[in-house]
Specification:
The relative contact order is 0.14. Helix 6 runs antiparallel to helix 10, helix 18 packs antiparallel against helix 22 and helix 20 packs antiparallel against helix 22. This protein has 575 residues and is mostly helical. It has 23 helices and no strands. It is globular, with a radius of gyration of 24 Å. It folds into three domains: 183 residues, MFS general substrate transporter like domains (Growth Hormone, Chain: A, Up-down Bundle); 53 residues; 244 residues, Growth Hormone, Chain: A (Up-down Bundle).
Length: 575
């Protein structure tokens, strides 16, 4: 691979190519040594439905153009089956939280454990996040297929165990097992999507993946509510078994990867994997529990932060000595990858504002029922994939970085506009804001993911993809802790001493009582209910201001740190 500043362009191509070496006329710019059609028809796969070959020598060689074209029809059906399996796998990840969330009352009623039920989600998220870099590196070392098969199998096992849970602690433990498989699915599916398609066609598969998330956001709550209302909550986990088993069979049957010699695979950095897992688990645990289970400046928080710092130092020491580190230093030494990591970390942070706080705003401030509140949020999930699918027409002309910068600048403006909504407002107003926000973020995220994947070869793509997903997940965890503190501080300031004011009888005197009051606002006097709505609206406004600041930070990172022209590899530009 060339240096980070090299664009891979040839003289005379400037008028035809965008700033990133992407053909603007829809054709493919064949530069450098010509790759065979066999490799390029599968995005550099080298085999039917296989993964792309990079510098590891996995590309097919000696095949003629005629042979490659003759094999295209044969490759179509297997690749379609693999894409179907990838979409099924992505659906498993996308559906899990939204389906489970709707059944929480039934689960708590059956198993108890109301005080810890939030760990049904926090435990899963923690397991997914800390395993992303591990699975990313393993997919580059061992191949995508074994990692994906392992992930689906672990997810299957976790789902089956969840149906057998006898108390809340057991269900949380089994959800963590699910998360250990979900990390492999989330990382490897995105990597294989880039392996299967050349740069020109990559927006198609990414748009399909985005549509899976959008459909899941709409179907998940309805499916979870239906199963919880008319069947036992355990059916929520049983329902994932058939699609997971089908995805497992399709991947095993149709995904064929190049055979790689043991010498090219390199050693597996198991010590680094364990250190990364332990460090990530401790730091994310304190982010989830800090300020909730105990104060930030308490002994548990400070002790866990110290343990996390010690483990981080151990990770650095182990990875420096490793022959093939789980967290290689080049992920942060290359301008393009480092900038994308930081920008998508900011995306994870700002996404907490709409995903976590808009449903509360819609119910507490606008007075909507939970279903209607979910429909307000769904506006963003509908416009996001549509915008992502259309983003290729923008980045083919102005490049990956400038397209993403345009998207995040629009997102910052939209997030700020939320704070200007009238109080009390109409439901269509936040719905419109979220519709525009989804469109802006679709223009931001997809060009960065496609662009950064196109700057590395097969042997580095899994690690690169996992690093950006990992940063986004860490940003989300940071955002939950940070914006939760902002919302709590605002509510505390607005409600302090309110119950002592005439006409405010029943006003919650502390933050722990706010959720109860929001669930039954009709029990409050009108003045107290209005005061509570105003406090919630102010808290959400402050959160959106913070989200706008995160968007502005992402914009600065792109403009100051990211190269204007992504160093797209020549073989990635061919189609």
């Amino acid at each position: 691979m060339g240096t980070e500043e090299s664009t891979g362009e040839h003289p005379g191509k400037a008028r035809e190519d965008s700033g990133d070496g992407i053909p603007t006329d829809g054709s493919c710019a064949h530069t450098g040594p010509a790759a065979t059609d066999t490799a390029q028809d599968a995005g550099g796969a080298g085999t039917v439905g296989g993964a792309a070959g990079g510098t590891d020598g996995a590309k097919s060689t000696g095949a003629t153009d005629a042979a490659g074209k003759a094999g295209t029809a044969d490759r179509g059906r297997p690749r379609t089956a693999v894409v179907a399996a990838l979409m099924l796998s992505m659906a498993l990840v996308a559906l899990e939280s939204s389906v489970v969330a709707t059944a929480v009352p039934q689960i708590v009623g059956d198993l108890g454990g109301f005080s810890v039920f939030s760990w049904l989600f926090a435990g899963y998220l923690l397991a997914v996040t800390v395993t992303l870099p591990v699975y990313g590196r393993l997919s580059d070392t061992l191949g995508r297929k074994p990692v994906l098969l392992f992930g689906i199998a672990v997810f299957l096992a976790g789902s089956l165990l969840c149906t057998l849970a006898w108390n809340m602690a057991a269900l949380i433990a089994f959800r963590i097992v699910q998360g250990l498989g979900g990390g492999a699915l989330q990382s490897t599916v995105q990597t294989l999507a880039a392996d299967l398609y050349p740069l020109r066609d990559r927006p198609k598969i990414q748009a399909r993946m985005s549509s899976v998330w959008a459909a899941s956001a709409l179907v998940g709550p309805a499916l979870g509510g239906l199963l919880a209302a008319h069947a036992d909550w355990r059916w929520i986990f049983l329902a994932t078994l058939p699609p997971a088993a089908l995805a497992l069979w399709l991947i095993h049957r149709h995904l064929v990867e190049p055979v790689r010699s043991p010498g090219r695979r390199g050693p597996v950095d198991w010590a680094g994997a364990l250190a990364v897992f332990a460090c990530g688990a401790v730091l994310l645990f304190v982010l989830v529990q800090g300020g909730v289970a105990w104060p930030w400046l308490s002994a548990p928080s400070l002790g866990l932060l110290a343990a996390g710092a010690a483990l981080a130092a151990a990770v650095v020491a182990i990875e420096r000595r490793a022959a093939a580190p789980i967290l290689p230093g080049w992920v942060w030494r290359r301008r393009t990858i480092a900038a994308v990591n930081l920008a998508l970390g900011a995306l994870g942070l700002l996404m907490v504002a709409p995903m976590v706080f808009v449903p509360t705003y819609a119910q507490a401030v606008l007075g909507l029922d939970p279903v209607s509140a979910g429909l307000v949020l769904s506006a963003m999930t509908l416009s996001w994939p549509l915008s992502a699918a259309l983003s290729q027409h923008v980045y083919r002309r102005i490049g990956f970085r400038d397209t993403a910068a345009l998207g995040i600048a629009l997102a910052a403006a939209v997030l700020l506009s939320f704070t200007l909504l009238p109080q009390p407002g109409r439901p269509w107003q936040p719905t419109l804001v979220l519709l525009l926000l989804g469109g802006a973020l679709g223009l931001f995220q997809l060009p960065l993911i496609i662009g950064v994947q196109s700057t590395v070869d097969w042997a580095e793509r899994g690690t690169t993809t996992a690093s950006v997903l990992f940063c986004r997940q860490v940003g989300q965890s940071l955002g939950a802790a940070l914006f939760g503190a902002v919302a709590n501080a605002t509510l505390g300031a607005r409600l302090a001493g309110a119950d002592a004011v005439p006409g405010m009888r029943g006003m919650p005197g502390g933050l722990d009582e706010v959720s109860e009051a929001l669930a039954r606002p009709e029990l409050l006097p009108q003045a107290a209910a209005d005061r509570l709505r105003e406090a919630v609206a102010a808290a959400v406004d402050h959160v959106f201001l913070g989200a706008a600041a995160a968007a502005a930070a992402a914009l600065l990172v792109l403009l100051l740190a990211a190269p204007r022209r992504f160093p797209v590899l020549p073989e990635q530009r061919e189609g």
